[in-house]
Amino acid sequence: MLRRFGSVTTRNDGDSAENNRREEDTYFAIIAGALKKIRYVMLILYAFVLMALSTSGLILQSELAVGNAANIRTYGNALWFSIGQLTLTGSQYGPVTLWGRTYSVILLLLGLGIVGLFANSFEHIWTEGLRKRGAQPIAPPKVDASYDDD
Fold it and tell me: Is 139 helix (H, G, I), strand (E, B) or coil?
C-alpha cells in the first residue's frame, strides 16, 4: 500500500506499524508542545480581561463623581474605553477627571506590555516550529556592489 507524505510517496512494508506509532508519537508531541504554549497565551489573555474589567470600574467610579460633564457614564462605555486603551486603538470616550486620566495612562502602558508579550509569544511559537522542521532562516539577497553607472 502506498502512502503519501507531502511530496514523498512511501510503501508500507513489514515494520509499518512501528513507523505509524512513531508518526503518532510525533504528532502527539507536537500537539502537547502547542498546548503548553497556548496555555501561556491564554494567561496573557486572562490578564488582559482582568485588567479591562477592573480598571473599567475604577474609571467609571472616578467619572461619575463629575456628573454630566463626563463622557463615560455607563459601565459599558468604561469597558469600551478600557479595551480601546489596552489594545492601543483608543475610543470615542475619554476621561475628564485626574484619576480617570491616570487610570488611562496606566492602561496604555499595560497595553503596550500585553501587546508586546502577545506578539513575542506568537513569534516564538512560529520560529520554534520552523526550527524543529529544520528550516533555515531566509538570507537577505546578495547585492552586487560593483554597480557601474555608464
Answer: coil
| Grid cell locating 34 | 502547542
Residue bearing the bigger pLDDT, 74 or 23: 74
- The answer to whether residue 2 sits within a structural domain is no
3-state secondary structure of 117: helix
CB count in 10 Å sphere of residue 79 = 19
Any domain includes 148: no
Q: Which of 59, 66, 133 is nearest to 102 (CA)?
A: 59
Domain count, the chain: 1
Q: What is the pTM of this model?
A: 0.58
135 in any annotated domain: no
Residue 69 maps to a domain: yes
- CB-CB contact of 55 with 103 (8 Å): yes
Q: Are residues 77 and 44 in contact, defined by beta-carbon separation less than 8 angstroms? A: no
Please name the residues in contact with 106: beta carbons below 8 A apart, sequence gap of 6 or more.
55
